[in-house]
Amino acid sequence: MAQQTPDDKPTGLAYRAMKTLHRVELVAIGDELLNGLRANSHLVYLGDLLQKHDLGITRASEIRDEPEEMLAAFQQALERSDLIIVTGGLGPTSDDRTADCMASALKTPLVTNKAAEEAIVEFFRARDREPTPNNFKQCEIVEGGEALLNSNGTAPGQWIEKDEKVIVLLPGPPRELKPMFEEQVLPRLLKKAWAKEGAPPVEIRTLGLGESVVADMLEPILAEAGDKVRVAYCAHMNYVDVRLTPVEGGLDGKALRALGEVCRQRLGIGFLGYGTPDIACVILKQLRGLNKSLAVAESCTGGLLASRFTDMAGASKVFKGGVVCYNNEIKEAILNIPDCILSQHGAVSAECAVAMATAVAELMESDYALAITGYAGPNGGREPAGTVYLGYHSPVGAWSRKVVLPGNRIAVKERAVVASLDFLRHKLEKYKMYDLLESLKC
Amino acid sequence: MAQQTPDDKPTGLAYRAMKTLHRVELVAIGDELLNGLRANSHLVYLGDLLQKHDLGITRASEIRDEPEEMLAAFQQALERSDLIIVTGGLGPTSDDRTADCMASALKTPLVTNKAAEEAIVEFFRARDREPTPNNFKQCEIVEGGEALLNSNGTAPGQWIEKDEKVIVLLPGPPRELKPMFEEQVLPRLLKKAWAKEGAPPVEIRTLGLGESVVADMLEPILAEAGDKVRVAYCAHMNYVDVRLTPVEGGLDGKALRALGEVCRQRLGIGFLGYGTPDIACVILKQLRGLNKSLAVAESCTGGLLASRFTDMAGASKVFKGGVVCYNNEIKEAILNIPDCILSQHGAVSAECAVAMATAVAELMESDYALAITGYAGPNGGREPAGTVYLGYHSPVGAWSRKVVLPGNRIAVKERAVVASLDFLRHKLEKYKMYDLLESLKC
């Protein structure tokens, strides 16, 4: 991928990623995964978790709730893979056929599992309800398999070992699947030494740089590490993430973190943080460290910036609040934006953005303030849709910045929010000595 | 599923859904789909679109960027399916191997396509850049296939017909894939009469009812339609959707819409709308119809409610703005919430919610107002996390409602926003005669 020069044959890096000791296959059951009603979120969850335990998923598929389809898929998976994880189709209804299809594929009968039966009786007793005969269908486990008890529902999972393969059946609802996997499946995989509690991967989030720019910047550093580390890039709407995963016999945790530090240095202000931090979270921590407060005034983003701060617990120590002024009267009435600014420069202007930031800082008595005003689309005004002015107020001064953002209304809102936060991040970086001295005064 | 009684064998409804004339298989290429970095969004998009054209996806899989894996997956797909859609792996780099792996699977050579070559030259000319030799690798099309020109990138797609099968290769980036599919692939599938421009499905969105309640309410109605319609349910965090899809030889468009109307009647206030409307959009339309305005005051949801309105173009006719008051000083200073309310009842109280709604209506001179104050978590206060008070101000009076919402902080925020909008929806419904008379006065 990006870490290769285009003329190369696939290199060691790309190849190593696929060479695992065990082939892992995820088979997700459900018509709703194929008709556009639901995304296969289990694949993202399990893919991430297994990758972090050096047991990446080799292949995944989505299969309809139809016995012939399921049987064929299970047989194929059993032929080519060592670990087969099946999600869904374990419920009490007649179209929940995962257990009997897997039993057929394994040519092994289903037997009633006592522990699972007791768990179901207990589940219903605790809720003062009566189980139906269908609920007991769920106690049927492939002979020789173990029931994985379900603390959040009635369908037990199954752990089956046969012919040196492992088959895991998991219930479909995420709140049942996740604890079952983490508490009962992962420990068994670790015990078998298929999964490894190795060094955690180092994740680096960058902001303001394109994927190819990030790859170009890091290539010399990562080329030196060669095939001692697995590298993956992922571009999101605003961020590009780089994930450095340890490989068997490669860099250890300390060396991996040191490599991360070298990347960080190289990326400069493009480095947002380790892990996958949201920029609002980064800003919040910086301001908390400075013991400073923030307020926001929003027009076209309509509260999205404010909402981003309040996604985090403890935000109220820094974030004072915001004003959403969606028309000019509100800008005048609540923020006291002078009519002359609105009539001379318009509500979408650098002047108005700065006035909004300064006004909301005064109104809420905050140290810093951000303001956003622009055309989210689909229509523009004096300027095209996507034109957004950012206003910034701080103890060292007030600035504005114009950005032109691509995409539809929702995308423009999202990009404007991140652009305003990045504006603040750059200013904080530039004036950090001043901010530091200021914070010591308090 | 839910439309069956648990004791049934899978009925005609469930079975019919799988019987299609053509087997359609999606093969998505990319390591990032398997290691948790990215969800397979193409499956959701194409699954929905094809289902609506009576050509549902039978099976899908995610495959690593490795030639052996890809070749094996393509060979298997060609054996069992009629239409094979491959996404990703068409880029200019050496690990973009979709075209040559498919050529191998089909035992057909790649040949340079003139039209694709010219399009690439033009693409770079328009951007004042020089193509590299790698870019021209992308002009290689499976012999006998057609290039699908890409107006948003350099990688052309491919349409290949061989042995009565159709193979479609699409570029990975959604903004390239979607227009290519809709403008070039779907018309070809319609022309072959594999896809059908049949009656569009009737989608019904419900709010405030659980999935099993919706199924129980609609079962008698839908049982009567028997296998003349395909029924699917999908529960989201706040909504339960029901989709009625026409089947060959079943209900026509008019009868399907009439069936939808019967469902609508049965669901009563639980019916939110046809399609998959957002509740904020429904409210906005209702208030626009009444020629009334709205303002909001938010504490724990921190701007999320306001942002929901401004996701829609033209919201400013109805939505005046909002105040995010994340601490008590702001509640006092900007909304003038009397100190006696805050000290006697607390900021998280029915009294404060009503006072916030009334205050913001006055401040912004709006007809209606909503307020939200509560404990989003992880910590509660005088009451547990998830406790939220909703305030509502209207020309006929002001009310509050207490809700206790499950989930983490993000989920509580999301649920509180929808609960407040649903509160307003119920009140509008109850006082609709009054609102109507009021609106005629204006």
Automatic annotation (TrEMBL), chains A, B:
Entries under SMART domains matching the protein: MoCF_biosynth
A Pfam short name: CinA_KH
InterPro entries recorded: CinA, CinA-like_C, CinA_C, CinA_KH, Competence-induced_CinA, MoaB/Mog-like_dom_sf, MoaB/Mog_dom
Span of domain MoaB/Mog: 25-192
Classification via CDD domains: cinA
Family of the protein in this entry: Belongs to the CinA family.
Record's protein name: CinA-like protein
